[in-house]
Amino acid sequence: MTIRKLFLLPGDGIGTDIMSEVKKLIDWMNKELGTGFEIDEGLVGGCAYDAHGAAISDSDMNKAMAADAVLFGAVGGPKWDKVPYDSRPEAGLLRLRKEMELFANLRPAICYPALADSSSLRKEVIEGLDILIVRELTGGVYFGEPKEITDLGNGQKRAVDTQVYDTFEIERIAGVAFELARTRDNRVCSMEKRNVMKSGVLWNEAVTNIHAQKYSDVKLDHMLADAGGMQLVRAPKQFDVIVTDNLFGDMLSDIAAMLTGSLGMLPSASLGSPDPISKKRKALYEPVHGSAPDITGQGKANPIAMIASFAMCLRYSFNMTKEADIAENAISDVLQNGLRTADIMTEGNKLLTTSEMGDAILEQLANLSK
Ligand code: IPM
Ligand code: MG
Predict the structure, then answer these.
(1) Phi and psi dihedrals of 348, rounded to 5?
(2) Half-sphere exposure of 114 (CA within 13 A, CB side)
(3) Of 3, 11, 82, which Cα lies nearest the Cα of 285?
(4) What's the confidence (pLDDT) of residue 290?
């Protein structure tokens, strides 16, 4: 039997609540479908800091490197506000992304038909929305050096972050976007700020070049990232795949997430390059939302983004397309049947706890698997 090694990092806050629901799915699939998932679990974020004084320990880092895929919940919370910058909860996530070289972050924003009324935008603007943001994840201003605060000695301090991109980093993320576009509506919109940033000039040039060399069958547009944010809110359905850098991708993907009605709905995949021999790629799957410490352990968290992240894991790490489709359809059906967690609750629907939502999705998945 194939062994599929999953490393679970639930993290802080609701991370644990939502990961429990994915574990139910994994157990069921192992038992009923013989999927052979082997689970190990570690600590990341504030809980890792409490245990080891670091946002992730070297030993958990090694386990993440050795796994076929990592499932990540969420990190952070007010409890760790005063922790030294290098050990803050987010540092664990950034270390995983950097050391696993997860340069490609895929953030789909899909509007489930049943939730078209939950968006802050008019129903007709977002109904049927299906866009994919491809965010560069290991470069740019989040990692560039120097990154420091210096004391100028005159009562002033100076903070510096460095936005830096090399051609190969832009070309490889653009390549991922073009290849994914070919499996969808075959359109890519690249976003940068070439009007004020040198890194934007190079971004635009490198995307244009690689497109001409290898992907000229895909339709390519360029947009300034600020205008892109505006267009995402004005007419989001005009986009198919958006490719952008780490910082702009962080912001634009939060905007795109909210278009769909709740931040609690959106999954993401962070992928590395395929190994030349085994063709396997390192991968981490996580919901776009955060750790929501205010509702932790109260049964209020929405497990859908985490479960949908597991569906992406089935698709991208294990090539289990059928099972991934079934998991995604199960989510859609449950919503269609009027079942809701608190964040997406509207009149006339049925309010479920985190665990009840996990059970409902599992039940539907079991039905669809027959
Ligand atoms: C995200 C988050 C992270 C980021 C934080 C938690 C470091 O906002 O994944 O979008 O900024 O990338
Ligand atoms: Mg973010």
Answers:
(1) 90, -5
(2) 20
(3) 11
(4) 92
Nearest to 309 by CA among 234, 248, 257, 246: 257
The amino acid at 81 = D
Q: Of the residues 244, 262, 280, which one is the last residue of a structural domain?
A: 262
Q: How far is CA 365 from CA 132, 324, 358, in A?
A: 24, 10, 10
Residue 309's CATH number: 3.40.718.10
* Whether 5 and 49 share a structural domain: yes
72 with 121, same domain: the answer is no
Of 9, 83, 94, 86, nearest to 46 (Cα)? Answer: 83
**305: CB partners within 8 A, 6+ apart:** 18, 263, 264, 265, 266, 267, 287, 288, 289
Q: Which domain holds residue 180?
A: 109-262
Residue 66 covered by a domain: yes
CB 188 within 8 A of CB 243: yes
Residues with CB under 5 A from ligand 2 (ion): 250
250 is catalytic: yes
Based on DSSP, count helices (H) and strands (E) in the chain, helices before strands.
12, 14
Q: Whole-number mean pLDDT of the chain? A: 96
Q: Are residues 141 and 244 in the same domain?
A: yes
Q: Do 58 and 174 share a domain, yes or no? A: no
Confidence of residue 261 (pLDDT cuts 50, 70, 90): confident
Shared-domain flag, residues 22 and 150 = no
Burial class (CB in 10 A: 0-12, 13-18, 19+), 154: exposed
At residue 257, the pLDDT reads: 85
Residues 115 and 93 in one domain: no
Q: Centre a 10 Å sphere on the Cβ of residue 48 and count the other Cβ atoms it contains.
A: 24
**For residue 73, which amino acid is it?**
G
Spacing, Cα 294 to ligand 2 middle (Å): 18
> 167-183 pLDDT, tens per residue?
999 999 999 999 999 99
Name the catalytic one among 193, 245, 285, 316. Answer: 193
Q: Is 113 helix (H, G, I), strand (E, B) or coil?
A: helix
Distance 256 CA to ligand 1 centre (A): 14
The pLDDT tens digits of the residues spanning 293-305 come to 999 999 999 999 9
